[in-house]
Structure formats: C-alpha cells, structure tokens
Amino acid sequence: MAVNLGTARSRVVLALALAVAFQLLGTAQAPQTQATPLVKATPPQQAPAAGQPAARQATPPAQGQAAGAPAAPRQSPRAQVPMDPDRARQLYVSKDPAHQSLGANYQRDIEARQAIEARYAEACKGIIDFKKVSYRSSVGDMDIPAYLFQPI
Description:
Elements: H1 8-25, H2 85-91, H3 106-124, E1 128-136, E2 143-151
Antiparallel strand pairs: 1-2
C-alpha cells in the first residue's frame, strides 16, 4: 500500500493506524508524534493606502537564532567534488534538436535496411519460411517491425 505522506490528512490517517497497531500488539505505549504544519499560517497583509509606499516587513529569525544575529550561510548536505572539464565536455548532450544526429543520413540507412530484408527473403527461400510482420505498440501510436522465421 503506497501512502503519500505529503498531505496532512494522510499523516493523520497514518498516525491513527500506528496507534491502533500498537494497541492491537499490546505495546504499552505508542510513540508520540507531533504533527507539523506544511505551511505556516500568516495573517493577511493589508494593501498600502494610495500614494504611500509599501512597508517592508522583516522576516522572523530562524528557530534557535537570536533576533539580531546574522544568518549563517546554508551548508549543502552534499559535498562538492572536483569537476573534470574534459570529461564533462565528453558527456555533454545538447537539448537543441538541431544539434542531434549531426551527419546522419537516414534515407541511406532506410535503403540499407530494405536491401538486407530483401537478402533474407532470397537466402531463406526453400529452406525456411521468412516473413516480415509488424504489431501495434500498446504504449504509443507506433508499429513495431518483427521478423518471423518458420520451418517449412
């Protein structure tokens, strides 16, 4: 069962389910959990009167900080690793479609595939039955080609 813990309702349901489970198991006391709101409620702001500049309100200090203390720079939980620019250049893939498949000749590839398919039919004649079939993809609007080889 997948539970989305992102909503307050699902957290309440999960807390109740855990409490019932601990009660059924005979555990002396279920662990106490405290629900924390996802968004802090703020009072509605009044629009400034016409002709008066809007007053900037100071943001409240973070929990555990004094009101006059400067905010410490936020530490990234992930350590920075040295980057190799040559390796990054090798792995770079552009998002621009004009940069994709440079130098590719698709018509030549299609003709080569058709020539190979014609050779299959000639090479299999009298030995095995060869047929090119296709089936509809269940995921998208696409026909998938397949080769069917059967004994005669």
